[in-house]
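Sequence of Tetratricopeptide repeat protein (Antarctobacter heliothermus).
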Amino acid sequence: MKALDDRLIAAHARGDRAALIALYAQAAETVNDLDASCFYLTHAYVFALELGDGRAPALHARLKAEGREA
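Predicted 3D structure, token representation.
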């Protein structure tokens, strides 16, 4: 996870929101805790919404499936 954290920090420093979507979605898959996973998915979703990225609906659906959105 350290390498992924480093890539997240670097993407934040660059302001690379497209990379942040992918990295946060990847982080959501690497943790074994539902709350942590949904935390990362929420970040990916927010960045996707900000960019109008096509991954937003799938991220939203994942959050809804976990009961994180009505």
